[in-house]
């Protein structure tokens, strides 16, 4: 099997990037996929240190320099980099911006994102705060294909995580993050094994799988 070439985009610490890299090296993605390049849009973000520690190339393309320009101008820069590395799947691992329809089409829709809540509930950047404020008893995380709306595309995998009365954003976030690190590599594995089929909003998974 030829290894799937992954390109990653991150804005922050990149713990999901780390989990994917480790899965490629020693876990469920070994001999199936490899992270070829990281693009970071924020100066000083720790995700670049993670890439460096694993000898993975990274490029800093500062998004704040493109704020006065159409989103497509920034996305064109990313497309150029990912094509240079022949990336076939793009993963958003804590990327705090939307990507354009042009970007998604450039990779035939093969763009995945992880969100720390059970979509379509609690979209946006403050999911854990919103979950606690609303008082729900169950939260979780979602891996989905990306479309041109925020936290909206077809759902691949979700995992439920209980919300306790004693939780705060940090305690809930840490329990959810443990599952993020499991379901994102699993979604990529299913993609590598050609077990995902999209019909409108429904992602059909061929066969059963364990987390």
What does this protein look like?
This protein has 211 residues and is an alpha/beta fold. The chain has one domain (4-205): 3-Layer(aba) Sandwich (Rossmann fold). The chain has 6 helices and 9 strands. The protein has helices at residues 15-26, 47-53, 71-84, 101-106, 127-134, 169-192, and strands spanning 4-10, 33-40, 58-60, 89-92, 111-115, 138-145, 155-162, 196-199, 202-205. A 7-stranded mixed beta sheet has the order 3-2-1-4-5-6-7, sandwiched between helices. Strands 8-9 form a two-stranded antiparallel ribbon. Strand 8 and strand 9 (202-205) form a beta hairpin. Helix 1 runs parallel beside helix 6 (169-192). The radius of gyration is 17 Å and the shape is globular. The two termini are 23 Å apart.
Write the layout of secondary structure elements.
Layout lengths: L3 E7 L4 H12 L6 E8 L6 H7 L4 E3 L10 H14 L4 E4 L8 H6 L4 E5 L11 H8 L3 E8 L9 E8 L6 H24 L3 E4 L2 E4 L6
Parallel strand pairs: 1-2, 1-4, 2-3, 4-5
Antiparallel strand pairs: 5-6, 6-7, 8-9
Could you name the key traits of this structure?
211 residues, globular, single chain, two-stranded antiparallel sheet, alpha/beta, seven-stranded mixed beta sheet, Rossmann fold
User: Could you tell me the radius of gyration in angstroms?
Assistant: 17 Å
Percent of residues in helices: 25-40%
Mean pLDDT: 96
Main beta sheet strand tally, sense and closure: 7 strands, mixed
- The number of helical elements comes to 6
Question: Within the CATH hierarchy, at the fold level, what is the topology?
Answer: Rossmann fold
